[in-house]
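Hi V.,

Quick status before I head out on leave. The structure for the redesign project is tokenized and pasted below; the design run finished overnight.
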């Protein structure tokens, strides 16, 4: 049988309504189906109500589409108080006619199958709210409460189909939330078949660490990402991390930026790192890896660029105090909003949640440079392969944003110093090794550039010096020749 394909010009894309939720529209390839119903399913506390309400809030504030939120569990007052913690003024939006919140109290004793159960009263109430503010979006939260006392599955199915058809006939873009069932995505196992789009939220505990994930199970009439994606519920609501957005599609800049240490720039063909490159600084404890990373960040801030330090061992106050001893005054940079700190213990979040949290801060601050110090701490909370996968996706994400990044790695004395536990050196553009070397009765820190792709660089070791005057390299590197063979690496 011959298969006939529509010409590209004759294909009509499915209309979509953006949710405004970070990352979700990307994995849904534009948003939720316009004029159709989406089921958001998940266990208690998974984030269903937050996602649904954000869909309405962003629709009203960013796309001029007022919305109706019909709740069957939480009152208007409880919802207003809960979302005030995310910075949303639901009461103010109601006064402006951008939002309508209606709490429908359902008493099981008042609902009976005798004489036939139907949703006519709900349609009238919902229709009135929609007409009053000329709503384009609707949320029903949560659907199983509506049918809690109905034991007849045929009636439930019939009324569900009627409800979804009513929403579609009115041209409303709707979200219906539902609790996860035993072997089904919902309690009744029916809503998932009637809805045009189904999103499942999952909140799991692995090794006493909480992780949230989102997956689009089905989406009629359009392509969509089918993998699980981690998401966060932060101070500004939900942020989804689209794992599939990372890839080898980034551009390669020829611009060079300083490492923050003039002597090191000289070893890097005189100009420092490439803009948008990834740099690994590894070495044993006390060799100055963190100081080198901050010198790089400070140089960027001195140029008027924004920087982020992701630290997993010291607080911001401790870092600011310690760096003052080597001539770096970071306080003015923090006060000007140029230098930003994110300091947490690695065990506070799962790997995917750490990745999502970093994405969220990077989108908020929009830095040009980043330091992550140290990546070796993640070995205490996960296995090697998941850590490498997380770091690879982070490197790809940073490269796509042309963000130059330094990753530090703490090596132990028994380890081969020209290797890392996470095996991430291969995805780095430059690699600097710092080690203790005994010279008679004196121990010195020596620095060596193991690789720097695309540029000539010195292969000689140079002494790394830290004093109240700042960071410098000793003269030993001047005897080394630039290795021009690395220009093609």
């Amino acid at each position: 049988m011959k298969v006939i394909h529509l010409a590209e010009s004759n294909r009509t894309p499915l209309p979509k309504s953006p949710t405004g939720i970070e990352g979700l529209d990307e994995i849904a390839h534009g948003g939720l189906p316009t004029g159709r119903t989406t089921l958001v399913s998940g266990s208690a506390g998974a984030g269903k109500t937050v996602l649904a309400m954000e869909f309405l809030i962003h629709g009203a504030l960013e796309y001029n589409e007022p919305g109706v939120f019909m709740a069957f569990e939480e009152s208007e007052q409880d919802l207003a108080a809960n979302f005030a913690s995310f910075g949303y003024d639901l009461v103010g939006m109601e006064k402006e006619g951008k939002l309508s919140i209606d709490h429908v109290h359902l008493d099981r004793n008042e609902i009976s199958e005798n004489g036939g159960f139907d949703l006519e009263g709900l349609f009238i109430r919902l229709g009135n709210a929609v007409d009053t503010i000329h709503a384009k979006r609707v949320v029903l939260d949560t659907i199983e409460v509506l049918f809690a006392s109905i034991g007849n599955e045929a009636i439930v199915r019939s009324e569900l189909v009627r409800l979804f058809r009513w929403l579609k006939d009115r041209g409303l873009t709707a979200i219906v939330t539902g609790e996860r069932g035993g072997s089904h995505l919902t309690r009744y196992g029916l809503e998932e078949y009637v809805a045009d789009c189904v999103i499942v939220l999952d909140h799991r505990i692995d090794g006493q660490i909480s992780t949230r994930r989102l997956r689009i199970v089905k989406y009629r009439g359009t392509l969509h990402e089918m993998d699980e994606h981690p998401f966060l519920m932060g101070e500004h609501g939900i942020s989804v991390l689209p794992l599939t957005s990372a890839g080898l599609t980034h551009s390669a800049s020829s611009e060079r930026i300083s490492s923050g240490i003039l002597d090191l720039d000289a070893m890097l063909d005189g100009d420092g790192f490439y803009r948008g490159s990834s740099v690994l600084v590894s070495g044993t404890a006390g060799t100055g890896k963190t100081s080198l990373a901050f010198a790089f960040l400070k140089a960027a801030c001195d140029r008027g660029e924004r920087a982020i330090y992701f630290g997993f061992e010291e607080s911001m106050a401790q870092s600011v105090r310690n760096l003052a001893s080597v001539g770096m005054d970071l306080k003015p940079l923090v006060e000007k909003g140029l230098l930003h700190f994110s300091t947490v213990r690695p065990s506070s979040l799962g790997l995917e949640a750490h990745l999502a949290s970093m994405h969220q801060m990077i989108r908020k601050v929009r830095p040009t440079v980043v330091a992550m110090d140290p990546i070796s701490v993640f070995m205490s909370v996960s296995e090697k392969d998941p850590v490498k996968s997380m770091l690879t996706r982070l490197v790809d994400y940073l490269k796509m944003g042309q963000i130059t990044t330094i990753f530090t790695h703490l090596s132990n004395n028994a380890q081969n110093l020209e290797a890392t536990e996470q095996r991430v050196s291969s995805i780095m553009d430059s690699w600097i090794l710092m080690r203790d070397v005994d010279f008679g009765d004196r121990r010195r820190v020596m620095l060596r550039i193991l690789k720097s792709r695309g540029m000539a660089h010195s292969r000689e070791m140079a002494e790394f010096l830290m004093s109240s005057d700042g960071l410098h390299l000793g003269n030993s590197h001047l005897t080394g020749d630039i290795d021009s063979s690395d220009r093609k690496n």
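Above is the designed sequence. The chain has two domains: 11-245, 256-488.

G. will cover questions while I'm gone.

Best,
W.
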